Amino acid sequence: MRQDIRTLVRAAFATVLGVLSVPLAGSTEARAQPVDLPANVPAYNPYPSGILPANLQSELNRVKNEVETIFGRYFAEYQALITAGLPTLTGQPPTLFPSGYEATRILGGLLNFDLNMSPFRNVACSSCHMPYAGFSGPIPSVNLTMIAYPGSYRYRAGKRVAQRYTYSPRFPVLHLNGQKNPQRGGTFTGGNFWDGRSTGYLLQSPDAEQAQHPPVDTQEHGLSDTACIALRISQAAYRPLFELVWGVDFDINWPSNVEQTCATPGGAFGNNATPVALSAVDRTKANNIYDHWGQTISFLESSNDVSPFTSKVDAAARGAYTPTANEAAGRTLFQGKGNCNSCHLDGFPTLNPGPNPGVQADTEPLFTCFGYANLGLPEQGGFLRV
Ligand code: HEC
Ligand code: HEC
Fold this sequence. Notes:
Layout: H1 2-17, H2 29-32, H3 56-84, E1 88-90, E2 95-97, H4 100-112, H5 140-144, E3 175-177, E4 187-189, H6 206-210, H7 227-234, H8 239-246, H9 258-262, H10 280-302, H11 312-317, H12 325-335, E5 372-373, E6 384-385
Antiparallel strand pairs: 1-2, 3-4, 5-6
Helix pairs in contact: 3-4, 4-10, 7-10
This protein binds heme C (2 copies).
C-alpha cells in the first residue's frame, strides 16, 4: 500500500511536469492527462489505486465546458436586459423597477456558473450541481466510485455526495420546534446541508448562508479568504449588474499580493482566516459583497430556473393532469402503507396503513418536513435532513 501511494504521488508530479510518456502500472487517465492546475502546482493525489475513476480529468473538462456554455447563456440574458433597458430605482423605499427580479435572477446565474470563483478558475458552484443531474453531481463514474466531487485543487475531495437543492431556499432557520415530539423537548427543524450546519443565523436564510460555505471549503472552491469573492466579482464583466442590484461599493484598497493570495488554495495560511490584509472599512465592504453573493445565489435557487412547480405532481394538484392508474397507485402507496409522506410531506395527510382519502392541504408539495431522520444506513453515521 505504502509503495503504491508513493508511486501514485510520483506519477502525479510527473503528470504536472508533462513528462509522463511511459504508462505506469495501475496508472489511470486521471494521472496520465494534464490536470487543470498551474504547472508549478503538484496535484493532490495520495489515493490508493482505483479510487479516482479512470476518466476523471476528461469528465471534469467536459463539465467545465458545459458550465461555460450555461454561463454564456446567462450572459446573453444580461446583454438582452441591457438592450431592453435596465431596471431603475423607483418609489420609496426604492426598488428596481420593472425588472428587478429578472436582474437578480440573471445575476444569480452568472455567479453560480462562474468558474473564476475558485483559486484555479476551474470550479463554479454548478460544477457539482448540474441542472441535468437534478442539481447534483454530473459525472457518472464519480457517482459510482468516490461519490464526492474534486474541488479546485485537483483532486482534493470531501466525503459526501452533492445534495440536490431544489426548494432549498424554503427551509426555515434552524430551530427547535417544540410542537413536534414535545415529550422529547422538540425536534430540530430547518437549516441547510445534510446536517443543518448552515443554520441561517447570520443572514436569516439558511440557503443564502449555505452559499457562503463552499467558496472557502478547502475541498470545494478552496479560496483562502471570503474577500476573494469580492475581488473576483470586481473583475467580472458583469460587475455593473452586481452594482446595480445591490448598490455595493467595490472601491476596496487591495493589498499588492492579493492576486497571489486568492490564487493560493485555502489551508496554506494556517489558522489565518483572513490572509487578504484589508482595513476595517474595506473588510466591511468585502463582507457586504459576500452577503449579497449568498443572497443572489439563493434568489436564483428559489426562481423557476431551479425550483419550478411544474412536475406531474404539481400539474395534478392544479387539476391539469390526471394520473394514470399506476401513478395513482404509487401515490396511494406513498401516502398510505409506504408511509413516505410522514417525512416527505406532499400536502396530503398520512394514513398508515393506507389508503389515504385525505384532502389536499393548502401548501406547496415540497416533499420534506424540514426535519432530520436517522435512516439507519451504516454509512450515514447520524441524522440527515429530509
Ligand atoms: C465540490 C463540489 C461542490 C461544490 C463546488 C459546491 N457544492 Fe453544494 N454541495 C456539495 C455537497 C457535497 C453538499 C452536501 C454537503 C454536506 O451536507 O456536508 C452540498 C450541499 C449544497 C446545498 C444544500 C441543499 C440543502 O437542501 O440543504 C446547497 C443549497 C448547495 N450545495 C449549493 C451550492 C452553492 C450555491 C455552491 C457555490 C457557492 C456550491 N453548492 C458548491 C457539493 C458541492
Ligand atoms: C423517517 C423519515 C423518512 C421516511 C418515512 C421516508 N424517507 Fe425518504 N428520506 C429521508 C431522509 C432523511 C432522506 C435524506 C437522507 C438520505 O438520502 O439518506 C431521504 C431521502 C429520500 C430520497 C432521495 C432524495 C434526494 O434528493 O436525493 C428519496 C427519493 C426518498 N427519500 C423517497 C422515499 C420514499 C419513496 C419513501 C417511502 C417508501 C420514503 N422516502 C420514506 C427520510 C424519510
